[in-house]
Amino acid sequence: MPTLSLNNQNLPYPDPIHPIIVHFVIAMVFFSFFCDVVGYFTRNVRLFEVSFWNMFVASGAIFLAVIFGQFEAGLANIYEAAQSTLNFHTVLGWSLAALVVGITAWRLVIRNSNPLKIPPAYLGVSTFLVCLVFLQLYLGSKLFWVYGFHVKPVVEAMKQGV
Amino acid sequence: MNSQLINQLGLRLGANGLPYEIPIHPSLVHLTLGLFIIAILFDIAGTLFPLERSIFKFLNLTAIRSGFFDVGWYNLVGAACITFFTVAAGFFELLLANPPANQKSAWGLSVGLTMLLHGLGGVFLLGIIVAMTVWRGLQRYYWRKNASRQVQWSYLLVGVVMFGILFVHGTLGGQLGSEFGIHVTAAELVKEGKN
């Protein structure tokens, strides 16, 4: 197997890519929900279209996010304290991929039957989705900001056997 | 800021140098960047719509040109609103940063210069995003109200240039975390010689 040449953050490229791709999942899911809720109460049907396309982008981006996430998790120096958070983040990531795509598909069905209305059941499910994305954001942030995955001083310290 | 000045604030700071576990600024950044970039991309998609029509037909997906411009407009407004909070949280966390002063980033910049550029850049970008929102609003509601192409070419060009600036700016910000370990709990513990 050819070996990758890793930098001092344990990556074959300058900075982690996963956190960049997740912009387009986090922002799009949140904003889609925001548009649905505002559209529902103000009867601004334009916002439903905005919401749909945001979900559409999110379901495309989430696959790339999971792939890069798996890759970068594999290259991270994982120590015992961080293991459970990483496991939870991984399982939730894959579940979210299925969930986001499923909900987007449902959204497409709703849009095809009546683009001017959004059923309250959809709002309920997307509320649940927003909560899960928020949890996932927390777990992912914890891996970087608390456990220091791919953070230079931490990677270097671990190489020296701290 | 030096530790004596930080202590004067009387905040109860954790090991990461913040009064809370996870920095807020990087989370808000997801929203600023995601919304802004998708806003511009959908305006580009709306502009090039005649070229994409066959793709949507192939995918059996209903797409309306004005819908793309709606995404461009509302996402941009969302980005402009949230960015005030992103910049405010960024400044708060920048003030509490206390990194080791003797290192250089991958770009050969010192910690202080990276922080300074990222801080000033944030204010500059907030200004541009707000100005672009006003510009976009004028196009949408006055200048190009009845035009099938709602945005000017110059607007799209500025948008694409902004991608480049955001990339540089974002990388500077990323370096503050991933190279200097600012507000990273594990890095701060390593610095103090703990495990």
TrEMBL record, chain A:
Keyword Membrane (UniProt): yes
Domain of life where this protein originates: Bacteria
Q: Which Pfam families match?
A: DUF2231 (PF09990)
Membrane-crossing segments per the record = 20-41, 53-71, 91-109, 121-139
Keywords carried by this UniProt record: Membrane, Transmembrane, Transmembrane helix
Q: Provide the DUF2231 domain boundaries.
A: 15-153
Q: Which InterPro entries does UniProt cross-reference here?
A: DUF2231_TM
Q: What is this protein called?
A: DUF2231 domain-containing protein
- Please name the source species: Halotia branconii CENA392
TrEMBL record, chain B:
Q: Keywords of this protein's UniProt record, alphabetized?
A: Membrane, Transmembrane, Transmembrane helix
Q: Does the keyword Nucleotide-binding apply?
A: no
Alphabetical list of InterPro entries matching this protein? DUF2231_TM
Which protein are we looking at?
DUF2231 domain-containing protein
Lineage top rank: taxon? Bacteria
Residue span(s) of domain DUF2231: 22-185
What the entry lists under Pfam families is as follows: DUF2231
Q: Which organism is it from?
A: Halotia branconii CENA392
**Which residues are listed as membrane-spanning?**
28-51, 72-95, 107-132, 153-172
